[in-house]
Please model this.
Amino acid sequence: MSPAPHAAARALLADPLTNKGTAFTEEERDALGLHGLLPPHVGTLDSQIERRRRALARMGDDFQRYAFLRELQDSNEILFHALVQRDLPAMLPLVYTPTVGEGCERFSEIWRRPRGLFLSWPNRHRIADMLADPALDRVKVIVVSDGERILGLGDQGAGGMGIPIGKLALYTACAGIHPAEVLPILLDVGTDNAARRDDPLYVGWRNPRIRGAEYDAFVEDFVGAVAARFPGVLLQWEDFAGHNAYRLLDRYRDRLLSFNDDIQGTAATAVGTLLAAIGRTGVPLADQRVVLFGAGAAGSGIAEMLVRALVGDGLDEEAARARIWAVDRDGLILSDMDGLSGPQAALARDPADCAGWTRTSLGAIDLFDTVANVRPTVLIGASGQHGAFGEGVVRTMAQQVAQPVIFPLSNPVSRAEAHPSDLLRWSAGRALVGTGSPFGIAGVTQVNNVYIFPGVGLGALAAGARSITDGMFMAAARALGGMGSDDTLLPPIERLRDVALDIAEVVAAQAVADGVATTPDTVDRAAIARRMWSPAY
Model:
């Protein structure tokens, strides 16, 4: 055999989109020159999955399993996705939260092979050239981060690439987006995390973050290049710090089919789960009193979607906002505070609203005093402050409400506002608890964005949407709120693929209703289902 076929055979095995490993048949090995490069036994996808399951079971911790799965994804995409899809409850915590947090912190330590694109500040003049790679011709979904606010862990710089990679694995697992159609991107504008910059293994650009006008120009160049290279692509903004998250969403949501999962996906998931919970308590949404702890991008996004849901249920906007009390690091957000962001100002209360409160301390009004005086029916955490929902706060809430709804949503587990077992104990088992991370406790719902974003993306693509409207996210939230059962607020993780299809159907229909669909004839359930790829050789 000449050198060229040998090189082609090795290239076939080196490409994770074409490599089948031992599952290449005898006929394929003959035709492709694979004899000798593979063991003689011809395997099957099932046997390959079993081999990887055994390997995972022998590993000592979840980070080892995460690294193993990342390497598998980089060597055989079909096998990786088949393994994930066949056991979503076990695989989801390994390929995404909570393990992906450590994966981002230790990204440089385990980096082996290129995946996605690192668009760095020193190479800003090359963005269009980097996107021009013919291997990217099929891309339909991009997840992009600048690594500044990774989960509750803060600035991880280039390590933040773990988030786009993980999110896109879930797009494939749940929404059936083909792995050749997804592209993770990290905008590497430096990092203010000195520990990362000083790490000799760090793979990113070792400089403090570019900010201000230069940052904005860099993002503008990126968006322009994406729009030119991938018409109709869906772009998901992920884990940008609060001061950029809203600005970028507002600036580009109508220029590019895009959304911010931390703001909109988290909000739809939280509101959908809340609708399921109040269906259990029997108290209408308009009668709920909500205390929100943490008013960054995620928290303020939840609040704004709650306002829209309340207005949809018949309240005017002023009455809807009066149902929500937001507490941040400086205490209850009041209108006379300095330095409030736009989203925080929209949540601020008039100081007169709490003038007659009974207080346990002077100065800022803390979470305990807010709970004691507001007597909330719902307590939501999006603060990243571990243990913020202490025993005193929870017992006080439980004394005032028959069935409190408590959602400590921060990720990873080390950042959760409370452990769900404590919440159940302090409320005498009466609380309806939803958590951002999986805890494996009976009766506790995992409020994970994976219930929303894959279906939103799939539905938007199916409809050929020009933009993703607030109505599309509200339709997703209301649909999710009706998917639970008498035993669970949300469907089991095993059903995530069905959930994505259900969400996609209502999102696509809402895109038509909102006048943003360009392919309204392809939004029926059967047409959407035909778009969903399944891993098979």
About this structure: The two ends are 26 Å apart (CA to CA). DSSP finds 24 helices and twelve strands in the chain. Residues 327 and 367 are 7 Å apart (CA to CA). The longest helix spans residues 261-281.
